[in-house]
Structure formats: structure tokens, C-alpha cells
Inverse folding.
């Protein structure tokens, strides 16, 4: 009798920006998938502004997840050409390489490609209109993906990202709480705090659905359900961390003038997920609760609580400077 053996097949994934806040979570998430073989070069190993290196890196890959980006919003205002080289022209080269090698591209973008001037969630097909250089640079990348990969390019806009592996607002608030009695936090900017690990899970789900031909290409909004302000986020992080939320004081954006303008309402709609038969991301409160239970954030909260009895001073917390962009 002949015995048939089934050969397990794996899918090759390339994760760019693999040492960043989202990139590290993406690599860790894919490591839980026995069907995924992951290549995760550092910036030193893969220069996205080098088209030859990009083509070589994409060869043999089935899914490319682009987590690499220029994320310094205020720096982009001073150096828009440099930001566009990374967020725009390099993305075009990456999309072209994906087209040449028949690879799917999941490209991370941002709510900053939208004007943020209407008090209602933006659908995926809303007209774009960046208010700063960073948003303009990211829009160049979006347009390149849409043009070169109309059937295999996935643009995932995210916002207010926080996580264990990089500088971000939630971690900054907890660190400041260890040294300050009160914190002033902006209360007139609205958005959707999104945990990087939850987004990494969603990206993996989207990639697998795309491979199966179940998710159409196009724009998806990778942000948490619901919305709040920086002030509301800080208060909830304090509450979950066992700190007094009354230590957070609301102020207007004018208290923290920055070189780059910020949208006042960066809330995104999530219609593309159910149209693809996929669930959207959970509510921001649920994501934050899960994140705060992880070792990295639990340790920050513990340190902040331990400092409470030692005395602290008041401080102003610039949300713009401590927020991770994608």
C-alpha cells in the first residue's frame, strides 16, 4: 500500500521597519503562525531608498508588510524632501518591486493624509487633504501603491499608535507620572488610540485573507473602534495603572505650539473590514486594558505608583512630541 505524505507549505513574508514599534510586534505576531516564514531586515540591512536593494529583498517573498517610515512629524516640516524620499519615493520602488515579483503589499499609512476638519468618522474613500508635510509625504506613498498595485496593494491607515517597543504617548504619560504630581494634556484633538500588537494581529489577518483571495485590495482603516482625546487616553491609562486620573489636567492645543499643524479630528470609519468579511479592531478601551496588563506597561505603572509617596512637581506633557506616527 502506498502512503501519501502531505508537504506543509509556508508563505514567505517580508517585514520592513522590523525594529520599529509596529514592526517588532508584526514579527512577533507572524512568529506564532507555523505557515509563515518571516524575513525581518533592520534599516542597516535594507535601505528602502536603494531600489536595487529593495528589488533583491522582495524577490521570493509572497507578502510584504511595509512598517518602515519617516515618523518625525515636526522634522518632516523642516525636511519635506527627505521625508518624501522615505514615505513616498521609496514606497513607489517597493510597490514596483512587488509588482515585478508578484508579491502582495500591505503598506502602513496614516490618518494625517486627511484634513481632520469634520466632526465625523472619515470613510476609506473620503477625499484626502493633508495639513502638514508628513501627511503629504505619506500620501505620495499611498498613491504609488494604488497606481502600481491596483489588485494586490493594501493601504492600512493607522493613528495614535502605542506599544511596548518604542516611544509613544501611553509610555510617556506613565514615565512622567513617576516624576510629576500633575500633567497637562491636550483635550481638543480627537482620535483612536491603537495598540500596536492589536494592529499587528489585524495585519496578519488581512494578509492571510488577501492570500486566500477573500479581501479586495484598497484602503483599510487600522484604528481602534470608538474615539477619545489625548486627555481621555491619559486618564484611562492612569486609571488602569492604579493612578489617580485627576492628576491629568485638560489644556488646548495652543498650549503646545508645534512646527507642524495637527488635524483636530482624526477619527476613521471602518467600513472596509466588514465588506471584506473581516472584523474591525476592538474598541480603544479594550485594547488599552489588554496592553496595560502586559509586562512592559505594568512595569511602568508600578514605577509610577511607587513614586507617588516620594513627592512630585507639576508638568506639561506635549502629546505631539511623544506620539508615535506611522
Amino acid at each position: 500500500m502506498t502512503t501519501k505524505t502531505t508537504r506543509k507549505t509556508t508563505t514567505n513574508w517580508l517585514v520592513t521597519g522590523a525594529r520599529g514599534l509596529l514592526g517588532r510586534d508584526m514579527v512577533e505576531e507572524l512568529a506564532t503562525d507555523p505557515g509563515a516564514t518571516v524575513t525581518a531586515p533592520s534599516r542597516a540591512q535594507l535601505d528602502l531608498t536603494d531600489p536595487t536593494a529593495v528589488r533583491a529583498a522582495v524577490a521570493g517573498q509572497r507578502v510584504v508588510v511595509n512598517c518602515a517610515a519617516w515618523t518625525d512629524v515636526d522634522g518632516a516640516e523642516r525636511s519635506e524632501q527627505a521625508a518624501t524620499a522615505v514615505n513616498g519615493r521609496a514606497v513607489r520602488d517597493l510597490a514596483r518591486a512587488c509588482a515585478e515579483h508578484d508579491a502582495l503589499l500591505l503598506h502602513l499609512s496614516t490618518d494625517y493624509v486627511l484634513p481632520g476638519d469634520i466632526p465625523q468618522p472619515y470613510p476609506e474613500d473620503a477625499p484626502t487633504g493633508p495639513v502638514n508635510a508628513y501627511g503629504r509625504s505619506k500620501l505620495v506613498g499611498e498613491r504609488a501603491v494604488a497606481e502600481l498595485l491596483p489588485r494586490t496593494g493594501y493601504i492600512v491607515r493607522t493613528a495614535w499608535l502605542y506599544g511596548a517597543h518604542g516611544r509613544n504617548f501611553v509610555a510617556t504619560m506613565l514615565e512622567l507620572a513617576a516624576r510629576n504630581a500633575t500633567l497637562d494634556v491636550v483635550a481638543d484633538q480627537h482620535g483612536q488610540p491603537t495598540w500596536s500588537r492589536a494592529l499587528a494581529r489585524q495585519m496578519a489577518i488581512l494578509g492571510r485573507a488577501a492570500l486566500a483571495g477573500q479581501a479586495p485590495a484598497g484602503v483599510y482603516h487600522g484604528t481602534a473602534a470608538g474615539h477619545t482625546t489625548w486627555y481621555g487616553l491619559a486618564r484611562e491609562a492612569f486609571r488602569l495603572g492604579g493612578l489617580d486620573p485627576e492628576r491629568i489636567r485638560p489644556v488646548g492645543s495652543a498650549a503646545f505650539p508645534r512646527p507642524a499643524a495637527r488635524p483636530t479630528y482624526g477619527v476613521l470609519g471602518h467600513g472596509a473590514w466588514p465588506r471584506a468579511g473581516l472584523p474591525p479592531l476592538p474598541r480603544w478601551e479594550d485594547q488599552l486594558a489588554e496592553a496595560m496588563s502586559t509586562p512592559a506597561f505594568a512595569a511602568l505603572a508600578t514605577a509610577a505608583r511607587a513614586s507617588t509617596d516620594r513627592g512630585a512637581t507639576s508638568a506639561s506633557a506635549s502629546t505631539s512630541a511623544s506620539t508615535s506616527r506611522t
Summary: The two ends are 57 Å apart (CA to CA). Confidence is low (pLDDT under 50) at residues 1-7, 317-324. The first strand starts at residue 11 and ends at 16.
